[in-house]
Amino acid sequence: MQLQQNAEAMLQRIAEKHKEKMDSIEKQFLMQKHILLCAKENDVLELEDKETKEKLVLYRNLFNDEYSLLQTKMLARHQRVMAQIEKNHQEEEEELIRASTLDRRKLPKMLHTEIKRRSVMFKESLRISFTNQLNSEMQERIWRFDRQESLRMRAALEDHDMKSQKELQALKDRHHAAVTGQPETVFKKESQEILTCFTARGTPFGKSELTDSATSSPAQIQRNSFSSIPHPLASSSIDFVASPIKVNPECFDVPKRSGKQDETPPPKLPVHQLSVLVMTIEDWKLCLLGNA
């Protein structure tokens, strides 16, 4: 009888020691698991932060490159348009000069013809009107008439030259006003439209990326603009932060079990531990007992 009691007491002590050992192993495992998870979360956050910064730099460079490319294309198009306008203006000026030169060449012959006709008419009128006049007086009148006609011809040629110069100068002034006025206005309008389009479109970081990104941290930009990127631990309900997670050993204090079967549930772990555990505590117990 005494031997049986001693054996039962020894078995009870062995069972309690075994339970204490299992509790210690379980606590150590949970602490190591927690440390590893914290390290993993910190590494993931650091990688995401680095990736977000790199994406921010790339999108900024892409934004600037696209704007510079469009501006360069617009400048090239503007230069081509200006060259075409100047070419058209040059052709119009050359056409006006050719027309003026042609008229200037034809004008003396026309004036000579008109002078001859007027001279014949004047002589005929003198012959009819002044029959009793002396020949010398008639010659004097004809000489004065020819002199007036030559002066009139010279004045007509000078007037034609002056009128041609005025027309050419007016055309040049009109072309200069067209080149310096409307194309510059169109160019400034297109530049403003491009800038407005880029400002309204922004980048994948948002419309005001260039202003907000300077005051926002990469983690905020990542949460606000890249929320569609799946997180490696998206199945858990953890609200991740960038600060390192400290280990709290009190979360893993496991009460010692008595000889009786304890019906109380196991210690309640934090939700960020329960959401990522793949194997349950009982599975680990069975695994450890099997290895022992």
Folded structure, characterized:
There is one protein chain. The protein has helices spanning 2-129, 135-180, 182-201, 209-215, 218-225, 271-274, 281-291. The chain is 77% helix and 0% strand. The longest helix is centred in the N-terminal third of the chain and has 128 residues, at 2-129. The protein is rod-shaped and about 190 Å long. Mean pLDDT is 72; it is low at 203-281. The chain has 7 helices and no strands.
Query: Shape, please?
Result: rod-shaped
* Tally of strands: 0
| Mean pLDDT over the residues | 72
Q: What ranges have pLDDT less than 50 throughout 5 or more consecutive residues?
A: 203-281
The separation of the N and C termini measures 32 Å
The H/E string reads: HHHHHHH
Put simply, the count of helices is: 7
Structural class: mainly alpha
Radius of gyration: 53 Å
Q: Into which percent range does the helicity of residues fall?
A: over 70%
Task: Outline the biggest β-sheet.
Answer: none
Strand % is under 5%
Ordered list of secondary-structure elements with their pairings:
Blueprint (H helix, E strand, L loop, with lengths): L1 H128 L5 H46 L1 H20 L7 H7 L2 H8 L45 H4 L6 H11 L1
Helix pairs in contact: 1-2, 1-3, 1-5
